[in-house]
Design brief:
Length: 250
Amino acid sequence: MKAIILTLTLSFIFGINTFSQDDRFKQGNELYANGNFEKAIEVYESILQSGLESPALYYNLGNAYYKTGELPEAILNYERALLLAPQDADIRYNLELAYEQTADKIDKVEVFFLTKWFRSIRNLNDSDGWAVYSIIAFVLFLIGAGFYLFGRSSATKKAGFSLAVIFLIISGTSFGFSSHQKEKLVDRRHAIIFTPTVNIKSSPDTSGTNLFVLHEGTRVELISKLGEWWNVRLQDGSEGWIHESDVEVI
């Protein structure tokens, strides 16, 4: 419980530092600090409806929903905050706390350790951050190439060539990370179940066989859509169909 209180307090500070230029956000933070979570939610949601967003906004909105006991809404906004700031440990921590309180405990398919390591590195920054690293590394590549092409001594040429190769690899890798993080923002392929209890069907219609039951707050992967039905996959590999009204896309 102390850990939850600590992270919710940290989120309030985080929000002030990141989105302080919007008076409505300050108002929402004040309402949150005074324990008026329902009103804070209204203010935060109004900011989103006006077309503005930030990790801090989604983060604090998630915390307000968490305080009012609305778990699916809290998880949804934590997930959206994490999409914008995948490197933020506080967001990830609060999201994990929220998931621990969901009814469905789904075993994850074991991921190859190199894949897990690769993903952890990729999530150290967001799309814009990796793009900046890519540009800097490319500039350093050009400098190294310049030493190789115009250096007068063999030692200078060798050093320039080595640096050029290293920074070209770093630039390409950073660009790849940036593209992947951007793709996650544009092509939203996950959703949160909002219906308290829902039957996952074997086919995209109400007459389909019930395969298994899921509860609110569970995260699903969106594979394809047919009419008003989503074909979804769970972390354990199970698949089925769910009506679009039962989920909210992250």
